[in-house]
Amino acid sequence: MLTIYLDEHAKKPLYMQLYDHVRQAIIEGRVEAHEKLPSKRRLAAHLKVSTLTVEQAYQQLIVEGYVYAIEKKGYFVEPYIAPEIKPVRRLKTHHEARVSAPAPTLAFKTNVVDTDLFPNQTWAKLAREVLSENHHEMLNVTHPQGLPLLREEIARHLARYRGIDADPARIIIGSGSESLLAMIVQIIGRRSHYAMEDPGYPKIHDLLKGNDVKLTLIPLDESGLRLDALMQANADVVHITPSHQFPSGIVMPIKRRNELLNWSYLEPQRHIIEDDYDSEFRFQGKPIPALLGLDEQDKVIYMNTFTKSLAPSFRISYLVLPAHLMPRYREVSVYHSCSVPNFEQYILYKFMKGSYFERHISRMRKAYKFKLDLIISAFQPAVDAGEIRIMGADAGLHFTIKDLRGFDERTLVDRAAEEGVQVTGMSRYRHRSEKVGSDHATLVIGYSGLSTKALEQGLEALSKAWYLTRSDKA
Q1: Reduced to 3 states, what is the DSSP secondary structure of residue 421?
Q2: What one-character-per-residue DSSP string does 204-215 give?
C-alpha cells in the first residue's frame, strides 16, 4: 500500500500530489515493472481521499506512460527506461560573452538616435485620432504597396526636399531597407551581377550574399565609388550611398553622379540602387540633388527610410521603382503584402500631412548641429596640431576621424575601450581581406544617440585615450 502525506491546504491539487509521488516511486525503482498498484477504492480509503482524486492521478500516469490499465484487473507499472545522460560541452552564448566583457558605458554608434527628440505628445495625439477616425480602414487589408495616402505624402516630401518627381503609384512601402532590397533582388533577378561600395553597409553585403547573387566589391576614392573599378567589374546593378557614403562620409560630387548615370545608360540591364538613408541632415551648403532627380532614362531605384528621422525601431522604409520594373513587381507582389501595420502607416500619414514631420526634422537638425559643433570644437586643437583629420561631418549623423600620427586602428579602439568609450574602426566595414588604401587608422564616429552630457564625457575620454592636444579650456 502507498503511504504518503497529502496536504489539503497546499496550492497543488491532491491528485497532482498523488501523481508526483507515484511517478517518483516508479522513476526511482521503488516499485517494479508490471507491479500491480492498489485499486482506486482501497487507495482512496487508505489515504482518506475521494476515489475521483485517485482516478485523476492514475489517468495522468497512464497518459504519460508510467502506468497501464487492464480491464477488470487493475493498474500496473510500465517498465521504466531511464534516459542515457551524456556529458555535453556547454558553449558560451553571445549573452554570456557580453556579461563576461561588459560593453563600454559610452558608445559612438551610427545606428541610434536621440530618443529625447521624438515627438511623443504629437505621435500619441495622432494615434488617438487614427483609432477614433480610421478604425475600420486601419483593421482592413491595405494595398500591397502601402497606404495610398501615405505614398502621396512621401511623393510630396521627395518633390519638396529632394527634387524628385515621384509617382505615388511607383512608391512601395516596406518594413526596413533590408526587406525592400530583398524585393529588388527578386524583381531584377539573382542572375544579375551586383556591386556595392567597399567599405559599406555590412547588412547590405550579407543580404546580397545571402540571396546567392554574384557580388563585386568596388573601392572608393575621394569622390566616392570608383567608376573605373565599376566598369572593370562589368556589373549590372550597383548599390550606392551617394549623399553621405557609409561609413566614409563622402558626399559624391555632381560630376561623379553624372558619370554613374552615364554608366547605367550604356546597357539596358544596368540599374543604380540609390540608398538615401540620412539625406535629411546636411549642415553646410545646399543639398546635392538625388541621383533619381537627375536620371533621364529611368535607371535609378531610389530607397529611403524613416530610421534616422524618427527612430531605428520605427521600421518604415520605401522605394521608388522605375516604371519599366513595375510589371515585374506586380508579378512578385502576388505573394507579398505590405509588411508595415496600417496603424503606423496612418499615423505617419497624419504626421506628414499636418507638417509635423517638417518641424520635427528642423528641430532634429538644430539639435544635431549643436552636438556636431561641440565635437568639432573639442577636436579642433588636435586638428590644428596635425594629429587627426575629421572627414564627412558636413552631412549625415556620423563622420570619420583619421589619425595622422601612425597609430594603428586596433590600438586606438582598445585605448578608447579602456576609458569606457566604444568606437568602431573603418576596417569593421571592409569586406575584402586584403589591405586597402591608406595606412592611417580611421575611426567611424556616430554621435546622434548621445546626450550632450554623455557626449562631453565621451570626447574628454577620447582625447585622453588618444593623447590628443586639447584647448586650454578643456
Answers
A1: strand
A2: HHHHHHHTT-EE
CA distance 139 to 92: 44
Encoded amino acid at 371, one letter? K
pTM for the full predicted model: 0.77
When pLDDT is averaged across residues 164-179 and rounded to a whole number, the result is 91
Element spanning 350, H or E: helix 342-353
Torsion of CA 318, 324, 328, 332, to 10 degrees: 10
158 and 278 together in one domain: yes
Same domain membership, residue 207 and residue 181: yes
- Decide if 285 is inside a domain: yes
Q: Are strands 398-403 and 442-446 parallel, antiparallel or unpaired?
A: antiparallel
Of the candidates 127, 125, 172, 129, the residue with the CA atom closest to the CA atom of residue 148? 172
- Same domain (yes/no): 55, 200: no
Question: CATH code at 420?
Answer: 3.90.1150.10
Domain count of the chain? 3
Residue 62, domain extent = 14-77
If asked whether residues 234 and 136 sit together in one domain, one would say: yes
Whether residues 373 and 420 fall in one domain = yes
Residue type, 142: T
Shared domain for 309 and 250, answered yes or no, is: yes
pLDDT tens sequence across 107-153: 999 888 888 888 899 999 999 999 988 777 777 777 889 999 999 99
Q: Which residue(s) pair with 274 in the sheet?
A: 240, 302
Give the span between the Cα atoms of 394 and 411, in whole angstroms. 27
Cα separation, 171 vs 400, in Å, equals: 33
Q: Determine how many CB atoms are found less than 10 A away from the CB of residue 343.
A: 14
Are 175 and 258 within one domain? yes
Report the alpha-carbon distance of residue 108 to residue 448 in Å, rounded.
8
Question: Which tens digit of pLDDT belongs to each residue from 449-458?
Answer: 899 999 999 9
Q: What is the pLDDT of residue 96?
A: 47
Strand 220-221 to 388-391 pairing: unpaired
Residue 145 is assigned to a structural domain of this protein? yes
Q: What is the CATH number of the domain that holds 135?
A: 3.40.640.10
342/368 same-domain check: no
Query: Does 82 map to a domain?
Result: no
Pairing of strands 317-320, 388-391: unpaired
Question: What single-letter amino acid sits at 123?
Answer: W
Q: List own/partner pairs for 359-368 with CB under 8 A and 24 or more apart.
A: 360/117, 360/119, 360/122, 360/309, 360/310, 361/280, 361/309, 363/117, 364/114, 364/117, 364/280, 364/281, 364/309, 365/280, 365/281, 365/283, 367/114, 367/117, 368/114, 368/281, 368/283, 368/397, 368/447, 368/448
* 92 is a domain residue: no
Neighbours of 331 (CB within 10 A): 11
Q: Which of the listed residues 333, 354, 375 is the one where a domain comes to its end?
A: 354
- How crowded is residue 432: how many other Cβ atoms within 10 Å of its Cβ? 10
